[in-house]
Amino acid sequence: MASSFGSPGMQAADRPSRGTGRATTAGLTAARPKPQLKKVMPEIWKLMRPRRWLLLGSFLLMIINRASGLVLPASVRYLIDDVMTKHQMRLLPIIVGVVIAATVLQGVSSYTLTQLLSKAGQRLIAELRMQVQAHIGRLPVAFYDENRTGTLVARIMTDVEGVRNLIGTGVVDFIGGILTAIFAFVYLIILSVKMTLLTFAILVIFALVLQRAFKTIRPIFRERSKINAEVTGRLTESLGGVRVVKGYHAEDSEAGVFASGVGRLLENVISSLTAQSTMSLASTTILGVVGALIMYLGAHQVVGGQLTTGGYVTYVGFLAFMIAPIAQLVSIGTQLTEAIAGLDRTTEILSEREEDRDPARVISLGPIAGEIGFDGVTFAYEPGKPVLHGISFDARPGTVTALVGSSGSGKSTIISLVCAFHTATTGRVLVDGVDLATVQLSSYREQLGVVLQETFLFDGTIRENILFSRPGATEEQLLHACRIARVDEFAERFPDGYDTVVGERGVKLSGGQRQRLSIARAILADPRILILDEATSSLDSESEAMIQHGLSYLMKGRTTFVIAHRLSTIRRAEQILVIEQGQIVERGTHEELFSLQGRYHDLYMRQHGLETNLFLAPGEGDVQPSETVAT
Length: 631
Hints:
Blueprint: H1 37-48, H2 52-69, H3 71-85, H4 92-137, H5 141-146, H6 149-159, H7 169-191, H8 193-240, H9 242-247, H10 251-303, H11 309-350, E1 372-382, E2 385-395, E3 400-404, H12 411-418, E4 426-431, E5 434-435, H13 441-445, E6 448-452, H14 462-467, H15 475-484, H16 488-491, H17 511-525, E7 529-533, H18 541-555, E8 559-563, H19 567-570, E9 575-580, E10 583-588, H20 590-596, H21 599-615
Parallel strand pairs: 3-8, 3-9, 6-7, 7-8
Antiparallel strand pairs: 1-2, 1-4, 4-5, 9-10
Helix pairs in contact: 1-11, 2-4, 2-7, 3-4, 3-11, 4-6, 6-8, 6-11, 7-8, 7-11, 8-10, 8-11, 10-11, 15-17, 17-18, 20-21
């Protein structure tokens, strides 16, 4: 990878804050259909299939575990009727021995199940997080235009968390409870058909009520994930822009925004807790009704001789094993519902088409000469609202093309198309005569380098940030790039040298130092096409002079695009394109455009006049190399 594409360098004025280019990516915070189990079942199977043998073995182990758990209540019947009532003491050691063996077997199987499935669930979460992060990283820039960073972080870290219940202890409790209920039901039928059928009828009605309740609570959990992502997103932005917040004394305002989001989250949680409490109340009531019914019918059957005392005690024990899983469905069902909602949201991201998955992108580029051509290019972030109109020009290999114009004229949109961040709505962007819309982006972007006004640095060392563009570079190549970009002049003064940690976004370095580091990164990448987007406009003259040498070296022999650069670079450009309202209104060299006395002349003189008034002594009129052409 030859450039740091994660940098927020494109001018916001050149594009709407939210847009898709081709209108193919919808914001993830938009309203979505309620998650349906049928919809996510294929995704659940995808997760389960690689672990099917583990699940099958766990299922068999679960059968053994639940069957062992029923030995104790089953033995009570023989203990009361045969040992205590009929005094058959020879059966007592057998009964006790069987109970002890079953208990040991149950304990070992429970431990094994928890170890196998809990660890498998955590591995699943790790795999899903890596899969989602890798997929998001391969999505087009339009996707990032539509979705906040914090929201995507929540998708990666939070949404997949509940999925562990699909393969972990949640599913163990759910399926195990069902198995226990089936075993218990069969035994209860043997003991008393009448009591069992009446109890079963009541429980079926309760199960239907639960099913309807879960349909109601499922959207609540989905909404919770959405709100949590929005709150996390705003908090991430607020913390990332803490200097702006403090600079405008907006701490209270941001606290209010966060409090509002937390309030919405609290309301959602309260709604879900109310629903869960209602279901718990219903389950408790049902248990009381069933208990009273069994007491009434059981007493009549024992007195009538249809059921022994031991049989009745055993019946009550097994009835608890049948009812308990249904009562647990309130909590277990909530966990599984949350897991399904999270998986549904994760599926939305994974269904977004990656950049290189476009069936039109079939051409893999080899080494390129670097000729870029725009052929009647029109582009719109939103349908029907074009920001570029019929742009046509050619940038020959090894030349410098400067883009000049007022803010919002479309300069950064042109650069975005050169970088293949977006695709032309109509017309073609060509690289060495090949339509960029048909090119596999990985083969193109590895030959592309970008130096932006707002340099993006990771919270790592100087060495790591420079090697970002070419991880396999040697130490000699790294030091060579640093010498050209003058990084060595400050890096080697630090106690830790190139292993100095720069802080989040390079906060421990000055603006000039960050920019020199960015240039070294681009030099190390050795790109064929170079983008300089406001690369020095925010620096003072001394810092600008320090990096001009590095920029000159970097531009040599490469096809370079420059936006609103210093005059020294603009004047050397082989062609200058004056962009206004998405159209090229003038083109030519500095001398040609200046002599036209048109739009470029006006911009140039206005900037010159501003610089003169601010910085030049009376009578001085010569333009200095450090002056800036109009942006």
